Task: structure prediction
Amino acid sequence: MTAIALVTGATRGIGHATARLLGERGVTAIVGARDDVHGKAAAEPLGLPYVRLDVTDAGSVRAGQCSTWRTAPPRPH
Result:
């Protein structure tokens, strides 16, 4: 069973380090960021998927949730 984590603010700093470490440990870490250019640039060298996500915008959060499910479908309980 693979763990899945959506890491917000993963384009730099603690968020980026968290996504990198989770990915290295076999977690399906998804890079979440407000900006497509920075998000894709952060995710690509780590070999991780990216979803656009602005946590201050409810519509963006819903869209990010749907994108996350397409990237890494939820596991059955």
